[in-house]
Specification:
globular; single chain; GIY-YIG endonuclease; about 25% strand; alpha+beta; 4-stranded antiparallel β-sheet
Length: about 90
C-alpha cells in the first residue's frame, strides 16, 4: 500500500489521504520515531491534527502507511511499536 511523508503541521496533515486506514509515525528531525498510531478511514487528517500543538517542532514530520483494513493497521502498529519502542507510546 501507499506511504507518504509530510511536515508535522496543519498544512502537512491536510495533504494526507483520508480514503484508507493508516498506520502513522510521528518522527523527529533526526528521523527517530517518537509515536506510532492508527487512524480509521475518513479520520486520518483529523487524527494527525489532534497531535499538533501550537508549538512548532522544526523538522518534525509524519509518515503514513495505508492499509486495506483497520485490522491490518492494528497488527502493523503493534509490530512497529514492539520493534522501534517509540518514546511516547506506552510499553508493556
Amino acid at each position: 500500500m501507499a506511504t507518504k511523508t509530510v511536515p508535522f503541521n496543519a498544512r502537512g496533515a491536510g495533504n494526507l489521504p483520508n480514503d484508507k486506514p493508516v498506520v502513522y509515525r510521528i518522527k523527529t528531525a533526526g528521523n527517530r520515531t517518537n509515536y506510532v498510531g492508527i487512524a480509521h478511514r475518513g479520520r486520518v487528517q483529523e487524527r494527525i491534527r489532534e497531535h499538533i500543538s501550537n508549538e512548532r517542532i522544526p523538522g518534525a514530520k509524519v509518515q503514513i502507511e495505508q492499509k486495506s483494513s483497520i485490522r491490518e493497521a492494528r497488527a502493523t502498529e503493534k509490530r512497529v511499536i514492539a520493534r522501534s519502542r517509540p518514546r511516547y507510546n506506552r510499553h508493556g
